[in-house]
Design brief:
The structure holds two protein chains of two kinds.
Chain A: H1 2-6, H2 8-40, H3 45-59, H4 63-73, H5 83-108, H6 112-120, H7 125-155, H8 167-177, H9 182-213
Helix pairs in contact in A: 2-3, 2-5, 2-7, 2-8, 3-5, 4-5, 5-7, 6-7, 7-9, 8-9
Chain B: E1 2-10, E2 13-22, E3 28-32, H1 39-46, E4 54-59, E5 62-63, H2 69-77, E6 78-81, H3 93-104, H4 109-122, H5 138-150, E7 156-160, H6 168-183, E8 187-191, H7 195-201, E9 204-209, E10 212-217, H8 219-224, H9 229-239
Parallel strand pairs in B: 3-8, 3-9, 6-7, 7-8
Antiparallel strand pairs in B: 1-2, 1-4, 4-5, 9-10
Helix pairs in contact in B: 3-4, 3-5, 4-5, 5-6
Classes of the chains: A mainly alpha, B alpha/beta.
Bound molecules: adenosine-5'-triphosphate and magnesium ion.
């Protein structure tokens, strides 16, 4: 127990980085994922194919492999970033595939006749998506998105293996130094993840209530 | 509006076969025919919700543009009213009517609102302007859909079975609005089985069967002396109901 209480600052440093990684990757994944979902429902076949290929490819690749490709592959083509930036990129690219699926299923939940009516009054594909479809899809996107982002929170631990000192790494460092109290340290780390997951669930719960009320 | 040699397939299914049709300004054409004969598809090709495989379609002397800004502009000129209303569920009745003018034509919000209320008044639902579509009856929703189309000042309006999803007591309120439009000189293509409307408002009846236009005549001629056997057969079926 002492090892945990005496090293709260180490935990704090690690889990703060877990949170920053999660938030930055969430923003990246949301932008990219929405774009890919839009591609998948667009009237242009090559865009649809590209979107589908991206989702299938990335969803079926282990996150660790995505990390390897980003961290060791990008420098090969002269893209040199910090390890932290690489980690945000890898997590965003990976999570975007899942965001895209959540957004797409939300889009499909909006009756297609409304999109047709929107095109029939002369709105472009982009306007139709932005003004008619997405506002109604939102209520159906939020619940699956909550699971996607909780998975992302836990997935940030992979970044630990790529030189990022995040929550899991802070735990590992403390266990190395205090082997006799490994159980207490593990439990503390598990609790920290649990706490963060609960907080994000609660935030999404609030959001969900707001979007369903405003309908 | 002129269609020449229009052909359309869905996979191996040949849905429109060498369709030639021209509609003059101010003319009201009623399209009738059995289920699956291609009436909806015909309407949808005219504002390019469906592409065609062969032939040409032109509106106001200009051929239909490909995807993009030009196409959006064309669609604004060709109004469409659907069987299932397709109102925007998250917008109020007034917003349904003003969204197109504001976003597509760049009309100022205040002007669009004023015009929108006038149009709602014209279709008899001014008092419902601030409700949501789900709070309206089917007949009222369809009248909103008509107002939404009118708000774009279309040159032609296409109606695809506008009353067939309605309860009988609501059919007339929609047909009355359409009849008034026809009288005011709107160019209209109407897919409907409402004989009363066809007799009252149509200049011409077009009978379709199996993807072809089989017969065209004035309503009087068509209903009392259909020429083709298929039209006779079809009329005998719907008139016995
Ligand atoms: N998107 C589509 N994909 C494949 N086949 C289609 C599609 N839309 C229509 N069809 C087929 O094309 C044929 C013509 O359909 P269409 O909807 O134009 O007929 P309709 O005359 O409007 O019939 P109804 O009176 O039932 O509305 C039908 O056999 C229909 O099954
Ligand atoms: Mg039809």
């Amino acid at each position: 127990m002492d090892a945990v209480l005496d090293n709260l600052d180490v935990f704090a440093e690690g889990f703060t980085r877990t949170v920053t990684l999660t938030l930055l990757a969430a923003v990246g994944a949301l932008l990219l994922g929405t774009l890919i979902a839009a591609m998948r429902v667009s009237p242009v076949p090559p865009l649809r194919w590209a979107g589908t290929a991206y989702v299938q490819l990335v969803r079926n690749t282990p996150l660790t492999v995505v990390f390897f490709l980003v961290v060791f592959g990008l420098p090969e083509v002269d893209v040199i970033l910090s390890f932290f930036q690489f980690a945000v990129l890898a997590l965003s690219l990976y999570t975007a595939a899942f965001v895209a699926e959540a957004v797409r299923s939300g889009i499909l939940s909006v009756p297609s006749g409304q999109a047709e009516a929107s095109r029939a009054v002369g709105m472009t594909f982009g306007q139709t998506l932005r003004l008619v479809v997405l506002p109604q899809a939102f209520a159906n996107i939020v619940p699956p998105l909550a699971s996607v982002f909780i998975a992302l929170l836990k997935n940030t631990s992979i970044a630990g293996a790529f030189f990022i000192f995040e929550g899991t790494q802070s735990m590992a460092r403390l266990i190395n130094a205090n082997g006799d109290q490994a159980i207490a340290i593990l439990a503390a780390a598990a609790l920290a993840y649990l706490g963060l997951s609960l907080i994000s669930s609660a935030l999404f719960g609030l959001l969900e209530r707001r979007v369903t009320v405003s309908r | 509006m002129v269609l020449e040699g229009v052909n359309k397939h869905f996979g191996t299914l040949h849905v429109l076969k060498d369709v030639d049709l021209s509609v003059a300004r101010g003319e009201v054409v009623v399209v009738i025919g059995p289920s699956g004969s291609g009436k909806s598809t015909l309407c949808r090709t005219i504002n390019r919700l469906e592409t065609i495989d062969a032939g040409s379609i032109s509106v106001d002397g200009k051929p239909l543009p490909a995807e993009g800004k030009d196409l959006a502009a064309l669609r604004a000129k060709v109004g469409m009213v659907f069987q299932s209303f397709n109102l925007f569920a998250h917008k109020t009745v007034l917003e349904n009517v003003t969204l197109g003018p504001v976003k597509v034509k760049g009309v100022k919000k205040a002007d669009a609102d004023k015009r929108g209320r006038e149009l709602l008044d014209r279709v008899g639902i001014a008092s419902q302007a601030d409700k949501y579509p789900a709070q309206l009856s089917g007949g009222q929703q369809q009248r909103v859909a008509i107002a939404r189309s009118l708000a774009m000042d279309p040159m032609v309006m296409l109606f695809d079975e506008p009353t067939s999803a309605l309860d009988p007591e609501m059919i007339n309120e929609v047909l009355d609005v359409m009849t008034a439009l026809a009288k005011e000189g709107m160019t209209m293509v109407v897919v409907t089985h409402e004989m009363g409307f066809a007799r009252r408002a149509a200049d011409r009846v077009v009978f379709m069967d199996d993807g072809r236009i089989v017969e065209q005549a004035t309503p009087e001629q068509f209903f009392s002396h259909p020429e083709s056997d298929r039209a006779k057969d079809f009329l005998s079926k719907i008139l016995t109901h």
